[in-house]
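no rush on this but wanted to send it before i forget. theres a chain ive been looking at and ive put its sequence and its fold in token form underneath. i want to understand how the tokens follow from the sequence so walk me through it. thanks a lot i owe you, the record is right below:
>
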Amino acid sequence: MRQWQHVIPSGAIAALGLWVCYVSFTQQPAQAFLFPRLISSVFVVLALWTFGRALLGLSRAGTGIGRTMFLNILPGLIVAVIYIFWAAEVLGFYSGSALAFFALLSLYDPAPHDAAKSWLRRIMITVGFILVMYLLFAKLLSVFTPRGLFF
């Protein structure tokens, strides 16, 4: 049973990586998808390598994901699904990313939720993260990002 705890997740990640890679290579204009094609290709190679190691029983990283760990990860997975399938497209890449990052930071930050100082720090970290993303993607790499309701 322990081997399946490595095979199933790595197989799911490899399938997701193949889908993302396929989508990036079938979309137009090709220039807009150059960076996603590069990243998704590297991701697929690493995911398939990990899946192959799991199938051969060579994966020795931990004992898999237990119930407690899964329940700890679940809120983040829900935020990620909402971001991927709704927020990035409807709100825009940067607005959706800011909301998703702030939600994840609020969920997993151990700082107290009843202190204004910790909320201010979360907001400042989110703004800084989005600023770095914007400068990296829009200015340095000239990557087209999904436009939405805001930007």
